[in-house]
Amino acid sequence: MATVERQPDQTAVVTAEPATTAGQRPPGRLRRIAGPITRAVRPFDIAVVTFFLIAAQLLYVNLWRDLAHQYLTDSGPDQNQAEWFIAITAENLAHLHNPFFTTVQGFPDGVNLMANTVMLGLTAPLTPITLAFGPTVTYALLLTYGLAATGIAWYWVLRRWAVRSRPAAAVGAAVAAFAPPMISHSNAHPNFTALFLIPLIADRVFCLCRGDRVVRDGVLLGLFTAYQIFIGEEVLLLAAVGMLLFAIAYALADRGRVRDAVKSLRKGLPIALAVSLPLVAGPLYFQFFGPGSYTDVPHGPVVNSPLSFLEFSGRALAGDQGIADQFAVNRMEQNAFYGWPLVALALAIAVRLWRRPLVKALVCTAIGGAVLSMGSRIEIPGTGVVVSGPWRLMADLPLFGSVIESRFGMVCAPALGVLVALAVDRLAVTSDLRLKMWGLAAVAAALLPIVPTPYPTSVRPSVPDFIAHGTWRQYVDEGQTLVPVPLAHAYTSESQHWQSATRMAFTMPGGYFMAPNGPEHTGGYNPDPRPTYLLLGAVYTSGRVPEIGPQQKAEAEEDLTYWKAGVVVLAPGFNAPPLYETLKQLLGRDGTQVGGVWVWDVHYGASAARTPEGERTGTA
After folding, report:
1. Mean pLDDT score across all residues of the chain
2. Cβ(261)–Cβ(207) under 8 Å?
């Protein structure tokens, strides 16, 4: 019996089910399932998978060379933060604690993990690896093979829906998965690197539009969407906006086909919602209404300049990090930087293939994502003219207020990838040898400059012996905290590394995570800061010792009591001398050197009686 499957803008693909002859045993269920798959897989498919795996491994070769001592240089404090999220997930699951909340950091208010990038969909399944080998290994796995899996998923979807040529699908998938914004986030953001579910979600939407098996496709769409929520909600929001732009543009370009698709979507989308909602309702309620929840995250205008789309990223083969730094807030947010050759190639492809509805929809999607990423006020380069951007209409909508608008530039990556795939697919079948040669040369010339280079690493600061050897236990009673100085913040997160390296052995105040700040519960990148938290942070960033008077000493005593501090710990490092002098004045005495750090035995909120100085008998 033959089945016919039609793919958009392609001819019908006919597959035949194998028949059994007399005397033959019918194939088992596993063989019936695996048979079509194994017949569909070609050696080239295996080569593509291998290529993506090797390419991703090469990008992180410096990190993998010595996981225990190397740190991704351009990740700032985010590698420590990501490893902390990995480690806390493993510890929560191992000890059957609430996976959505913890007070190990940010004591006593705690951390709403669902309201942070904890990536439970990835970190939870990898808990055995985290417990056995440490969070850095899991972190490297997520970055490396999340990126490779994204490329493989895009290859499968492009081959299924957009092009006939496998090489064309491979090239398009490489653009979509290894585009400059993806490479920028891959410095430290696994939730923006492991995007393999986004193409699978798009695939199920296309299947629903076809309307052959609405129930099955609706169920799968619901499951994929729920799983993506547990990997990265912001990514899902960006993808949803991109698919909406694509759908609107395609509807205007091919209204007849869209009318048929809408009928199937009306049946399938409610099924997807009915499947996903029960799976995510509880966690989302905890995220938005539970302890540690917050409202929007005011981050100021973080936008892409129109010129940034023509420049090369710092990690690109033709890139200049100094130039790229002028257009991005940091090296993890280079959300444009596709380079003028690729933009020019996309424009040429659009002109040549403009009659195809698919091309019109892709171009509109790319332009829409780019314009949204420019923010509410778009400055026309070289003119001084400022015009209102469409982001102005979206910035105050629920959820959108927490999105960094420049990240909408990532929507361009799959759109450009499909356009390039369409061009290579057309060149693969042309009989004009000269056209094929020049066309492929143009594609190579556009893509070669944005080929990413390996991520640089630097030597990671080691965990002080005072922490690593457990000496801190002599200074901290049950219910008390260890107060690291500086406390973890968006500008320094080394104390998070101390925690994750010791399997969350101690509790500490402060932290680098999203939390409510102020009476309006606005989102911030640290817990609601207390006076001493702000004072020590200012010393760390400025290197200046402030004037310490009775008010500052009283605030320090109040804050340490609130934190139930057992010991204050200062490790050698950036601006350690002014921090030491500040602590000496705040606490009224010199610190004691123990295990490579300075400690002040304070015992606020201790359960046992202490001497007037708060010192423990028999300690160093």
Report:
1. 91
2. no
